[in-house]
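Exercise 7. Given the encoded structure of a 90-residue chain, write a plausible sequence.
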């Protein structure tokens, strides 16, 4: 998705936003971090206890109606592609 897309509900202008994850005390941790996704069939690593990351999630908000849309990059769509820290395809 380009940064100049239009809203599916009202055709307003969509702008990139950062979605922050807070704990129950309102803390966001050391700073904003990228939201990642994983595939349902993935399992935790024996050594790290973490799931593998399939890609990054990007968020866009409509300036007119406030709709927030989430988009995942699709590394499988490009044979040698991997997610980069900005959430765009390399």
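Solution.
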């Amino acid at each position: 998705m380009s940064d100049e897309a239009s809203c599916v509900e009202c055709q307003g202008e969509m702008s990139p936003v950062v979605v922050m994850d807070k704990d129950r005390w309102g803390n966001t941790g050391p700073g904003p971090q990228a939201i990642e996704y994983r595939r349902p069939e993935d399992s935790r690593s024996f050594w790290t206890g973490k799931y593998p990351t399939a890609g990054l999630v990007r968020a866009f908000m409509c300036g007119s109606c406030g709709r927030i849309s989430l988009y995942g990059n699709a590394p499988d769509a490009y044979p040698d592609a991997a997610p980069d820290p900005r959430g765009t395809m390399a």
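Remark. Residues 77-90 have pLDDT under 50 and may be disordered. Students should compare their own answers with the one above.
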